[in-house]
# Entry
Amino acid sequence: VLTWDNGQGLLFTKTISVDEKYMFTIEERVTNKGATDVTLAPFGRIQRKYADDVEHYAILHEGMIGVQESTLQEIGYKSLREDGAKTFSAKGGWLGVSDKYWLTALIPGTTQDHAVRYANVAGEGTPRYQADFKAASLSVPAGSENYSTVQFFAGAKELNVLDGYNQKYNIPLFDRAVDFGVLYFLTKPIFLMLTYFYSVLQNFGLAILALTVVIKALMFPLANKSYRSMNQMKALQPKMEKLKERCGTDKMRFQQEMMEMYRKEKVNPASGCLPLLIQIPVFFALYKVLFVSIEMRHAPFFGWITDLSAPDSSNLFTGFGLIPWENPSFLHLGIWPILMTVSMVLQQKLSPKPTDPVQAKVMGLMPYMFLFLFVSFPVGLVIYWTWSNALSILQQWWLMRAHKTPEHKA
# Structure
């Protein structure tokens, strides 16, 4: 409790309390001991220094954040420098500054209109940025008192904590401080499933493996349909070759007759791509979860994997730690990316080959393209993809037996 007298008949009392997750509740009470009425406006601000030469993340928002007019506001530092301050008039909501894992936020807690501003404020040296609010004025008649209450959060962006405050204090969209992005409808459920499996298995790596099994089970009907379609396309290959010979250079006629053949044979050439197309948003959603969730930060798996949110630390070019060589950053190839590539090659050998030779060559190169692409990805994502491929291999083996064709008979 802090108290002070302004020497003009006003006594200010500030009571600050904080819970175990760093939500502060600040009550400011004004007692008017003078002979005239006064009017005061509650005000709060968050200010931070931010140097532009630090690392920026293309897939992550860092900067001013809040909810005004029932809408999430995400305003970057560059926008404030170049376009000037952003102002809003709102009831309720919250405002603050977001980093990758941390949040500072003011919750005015008033049902009346209040002014919110996000701005680049003057200062020497490192630029400073500010999020502030000014609430409606309060009247304090002579011989009486009045008060206002504001909450201030300064802590880690743990989703269960933010959701808990949302329910307890009715803070709208408070969970959106975790930047789950445009795939929020998919990313948050994936995160919740991961944390559920973690509560059972006590290891986020095992939780990722369990989540992959669930995803594969949900996609199994599509995989079954896709494999059947690819086998049908393969069976139609001789007819396709005859059709090419008959149509010659008339590509339009060839396309028309080919589509008619698909219709008669009840083959959908696009259905073979469905499992991959559906898996792409799941892949990016999991990538987002691993990248932005503080719960994944420094989460270990087994062996040398001590942080699922970081790239695989092992390296082929140092003999996996046996050669004391400070290699260039571009010469880095971990064990898990290699295992992932092997799994992709094995999966391709079990899959029906594309009828188009150009497409077949591209598909043959894809595992090696993915190898160098995934080197810098969080190892948790590489583990997911490798395990997913392993399950796909088992799945395809079963489907080959279930849809046995002459090519597959012993």
About this structure: The first helix runs from residue 77 to 83. DSSP finds ten helices and 14 strands in the chain. The longest strand covers residues 145-156. The two ends are 84 Å apart (CA to CA).
